[in-house]
From TrEMBL:
GO terms for cellular component: cytoplasm. One of its GO terms (biological process) is DNA protection. Keywords: Cytoplasm, Hydrolase, Magnesium, Metal-binding, RNA-binding. It catalyses: O(6)-methyl-dGTP + H2O = O(6)-methyl-dGMP + diphosphate + H(+); N(6)-methyl-ATP + H2O = N(6)-methyl-AMP + diphosphate + H(+); 8-oxo-dATP + H2O = 8-oxo-dAMP + diphosphate + H(+); 8-oxo-dGTP + H2O = 8-oxo-dGMP + diphosphate + H(+). This is Oxidized purine nucleoside triphosphate hydrolase. GO terms for molecular function: 8-oxo-7,8-dihydroguanosine triphosphate pyrophosphatase activity; dATP diphosphatase activity; metal ion binding; RNA binding. It comes from Natronorubrum thiooxidans. Its cofactor is Mg(2+). Monomer. The keyword Signal does not apply. It is an enzyme of class 3 (hydrolase). It comes from the Archaea. Oxidized purine nucleoside triphosphate hydrolase which is a prominent sanitizer of the oxidized nucleotide pool. Catalyzes the hydrolysis of 2-oxo-dATP (2-hydroxy-dATP) into 2-oxo-dAMP. Also has a significant hydrolase activity toward 2-oxo-ATP, 8-oxo-dGTP and 8-oxo-dATP. Through the hydrolysis of oxidized purine nucleoside triphosphates, prevents their incorporation into DNA and the subsequent transversions A:T to C:G and G:C to T:A. Also catalyzes the hydrolysis of methylated purine nucleoside triphosphate preventing their integration into DNA. Belongs to the Nudix hydrolase family.
Length: 169
């Protein structure tokens, strides 16, 4: 199973509302959809290191590794087999201005204006809670063969309020 990360940088917007940095993905899995910065772990890398690297590579933001708060662990199954295990982080420790890359267009979005209809079908089930500060373990079942972003979302299990306190990797 592939191991991946998602990182959700957050800040206070001009009118005091909470904003999250999303990317519009320009290539690869989930192309044309919104998501957080993130991607696959490289050899020898911890999930936290991967989240920092991917956020920098995709949108040019510097996030502080120790200020990444683990918010979720998501398992995506395709036709009954583990396809992707994703570590989800959020952070308020963000430096720099987001810039577009070959991979992604970045955009700060108010958390009550997140475009769930232009995201993976599972996102609306877990991302609102994650953006409100909750923690979650989720399992999401897709069917219909590769690639994952053309398969059908058929079911899920969620467990909220999970502790990741011991997870410093
Ligand atoms: C099935 N439902 C899903 N819901 C929400 N997010 C999902 C997801 N499935 C995959 N993701 C995330 O999408 C990112 C890109 O995936 P990723 O494997 O990196 O694909 P990509 O083709 O871009 O590869 P590169 O990393 O560029 O090599 C990565 O953070 C991964 O966790």
């Amino acid at each position: 199973m592939r191991e991946t990360t998602l990182c959700f940088p957050m800040r206070e917007g001009r009118d005091g509302e909470t904003e999250v940095l999303l990317i519009e993905k320009r290539r690869g899995l989930g192309e044309g959809w919104y998501n957080g910065p993130g991607g696959k772990l490289e050899a020898g890398e911890t999930p936290r290191e991967c989240a920092v690297r991917e956020t920098h590579e995709e949108v040019g933001l510097e996030v502080e590794p120790s200020a990444l708060e683990k918010a979720g662990e998501l398992t995506f199954l395709l036709d009954g087999e583990g396809h992707t295990f994703c570590h989800v982080y959020r952070t308020r420790s963000v430096a720099g201005e987001p810039t577009a890359s070959e991979e992604a267009y970045p955009e700060w979005v108010a958390i009550d204006e997140v475009p769930y209809e232009q995201m993976w079908d599972d996102d609306h089930l877990w991302l609102p809670g994650v953006l409100e500060g909750e923690t979650v373990v989720g399992k999401f079942r897709f069917e219909g063969g590769q690639p994952l972003d053309e398969a059908e979302f058929v079911g899920h299990d969620l467990e909220w309020g999970v502790s990741f306190a011991a997870d410093r990797k």
